[in-house]
Design a protein that fits this description.
InterPro entries: 4pyrrol_synth_GluAld_NH2Trfase, Aminotrans_3, Aminotrans_3_PPA_site, PyrdxlP-dep_Trfase, PyrdxlP-dep_Trfase_major, PyrdxlP-dep_Trfase_small. Pathway: Porphyrin-containing compound metabolism; protoporphyrin-IX biosynthesis; 5-aminolevulinate from L-glutamyl-tRNA(Glu): step 2/2. With 422 residues, this protein is an alpha/beta fold. The chain folds into two domains: 3-64 and 319-419, Aspartate Aminotransferase, domain 1 (Alpha-Beta Complex), CATH 3.90.1150; 69-316, Aspartate Aminotransferase, domain 2 (3-Layer(aba) Sandwich). It contains 14 helices and 16 strands. The chain has helices at residues 3-14, 69-79, 90-102, 115-130, 170-173, 184-194, 219-230, 249-254, 280-283, 302-316, 320-339, 366-370, 374-386, 407-419, and strands at 36-40, 43-46, 51-54, 108-112, 134-139, 151-154, 157-163, 176-180, 198-203, 233-237, 260-264, 274-278, 346-350, 353-357, 389-390, 399-400. The model is unreliable at 153-159 (pLDDT under 50). Bound molecules: pyridoxal-5'-phosphate. Pyridoxal-5'-phosphate (PLP) is lined by residues 59, 114-116, 119, 142-144, 204, 208-209, 237, 239-240, 264, 274.
Length: 422
């Protein structure tokens, strides 16, 4: 029996589904998970000693690739000075400064320990600041597992939120207004109906959790405009896009400045992290300056800050444009190879992300993404994995490429794709 299988069998007895986050169980691609022992650059090594080219990157944090020497050194040095103080430290000030310098919409920032914490608090802050309760969330956007975000559209009630999971009371999502992504007219309609009750819009400024779906032209600008018109706040959830779409995230790339920004993933260099920030007058409402409460034992943890600072220092000098061009060329070729097998497939790519959608239609909306052929993705995933290419264990996730991916990695992945049979 393979070591991964053996560990999975043990894990299933010890943890729900054998995992600490559901997607890792690989259920939708009908595989057992691989247990990873080591990562170096773009390569993951499993407990069985097999190597894989990684297109997941820990779901986004590892833009520099695994175990970048600067990041590893920073973590080691910081850990040697203790893993936790629960008191202010230099690293918090340095990382805060770097984030503020990079992000046009961030005058002040608060560190937390996950993206989920960041979005939950940003919503609380928007509600507290505006004195309003309702907020707009786009179907197919993911903002972590905070209760108000776990709403799905009930059939026939496109804008009526019902809890997407047991354990979330209906009352918790009754103020969640669901709107299709990239549909500015639907947003305007919500504001026409509920304008003076809407605290904020929260949006992935490029969606990465329903496959990669960039904003259509004018969408983000439209959100900014409508928020200004009705006195609502615009929250960009940049947990994926921050420091990935450009060093200054989606807001720098698209030139639309949100009132609040949520971050995670890359700013912790792989360590558990989140952050929210925004305009000074809004952030001043957070305790202890203001009366909107949020706290955390590990918020601003020194080792996490050290990993984040080291990561951003490398990224300051990284050639984002060159990586984007390489990823665009790779995705184009990968698409051509799959399409040549007579399969319906389209793709989206932006910066260092891409998604192959097993459908004939260009995907700009969640409904189109959901209509993709999941069985075909599962087959693609399994055959690529068997040849040493590690893809997301769900078709509706963006593939991630790092600065550590070389032309050789791309060529090997393309060769694997050529061998796939549908
Ligand atoms: N927001 C977005 C856009 C995400 O992609 C994620 C996680 O993937 C989150 C929030 C939640 O972050 P975390 O998993 O760190 O809680």
């Amino acid at each position: 029996m393979e070591r991964s299988s053996e560990l999975y069998a043990r894990a299933k007895d010890l943890m729900p589904g054998g995992v600490n986050s559901p997607i890792r169980a690989c259920l939708s691609v009908e595989c057992e998970p691989l247990f990873i022992k080591k990562g170096e650059g773009a390569i993951l090594t499993t407990e069985d000693g097999k190597e894989y080219i990684d297109f997941v990157e820990g779901w986004g944090p590892m833009l520099l690739g695994h175990a970048h020497p600067d990041v590893t050194k920073a973590i080691q040095e910081s850990a040697a000075n203790s893993a936790c103080f629960g008191a202010p430290c230099l690293g918090e000030v340095e990382l805060a400064q770097m984030i503020i310098d990079a992000m046009p919409g961030v005058d002040m920032v608060r560190m937390v320990s996950s993206g989920t914490e960041a979005t939950m608090t940003a919503l609380r802050l928007a509600r507290g600041y505006t004195g309003r309760n309702k907020f707009i969330k786009f179907t197919g956007n993911y903002h972590g597992h905070g209760d108000p975000f776990l709403a799905a559209a009930g059939s026939g009630f496109a804008d009526l939120a019902i809890p997407g999971t047991p354990g979330v009371p209906a009352g918790t999502v009754q103020d969640t207004l669901l709107v299709p992504y990239n549909d500015i007219e639907a947003v305007r309609k919500q504001f026409e109906a509920n304008g003076d009750e809407i605290a904020c819009i929260i949006v992935e400024p490029t969606a990465g959790n329903m496959g990669l779906i960039p904003p259509v032209e004018g969408f983000l600008e439209g959100l900014r405009e409508v928020c200004d018109q009705y006195g609502a706040l615009l929250i960009f959830d940049e947990v994926i896009t921050g420091f990935r779409l450009s060093y200054g995230g989606a807001q720098a790339r698209f030139g639309v400045t949100p009132d609040l920004t949520t971050l995670g993933k890359i700013i912790g260099g792989g360590m558990p992290v989140g952050a929210y920030g925004g305009k000074r007058e809004i952030m001043d409402r957070v305790a202890p300056t203001g009366n909107i409460f949020q706290a955390g034992t590990n918020s601003g943890n020194p080792v996490v800050m050290a990993a984040g600072i080291a990561t951003l220092k490398v990224l300051q000098n990284a050639d984002y444009d060159a990586l984007e061009a390489r990823v665009a060329a790779f995705a184009k070729e990968l698409h051509a190879i799959i399409a040549s097998k007579g399969v319906d497939v389209t793709y989206n790519t932006l910066a260092s992300m891409f998604t192959m959608f097993f459908t004939s239609e260009k995907v700009t909306h969640f409904d189109q993404a959901k209509a993709c052929n999941a069985k075909m993705y599962a087959s693609f995933y399994q055959q690529m994995r068997a040849q040493g290419v590690y893809l997301a264990s769900l078709g509706l996730e963006a593939a991630m490429v790092s600065f550590a991916h070389t032309d050789e990695h791309f060529e090997k992945a393309l060769e694997a794709a050529r061998n796939v049979k549908f």
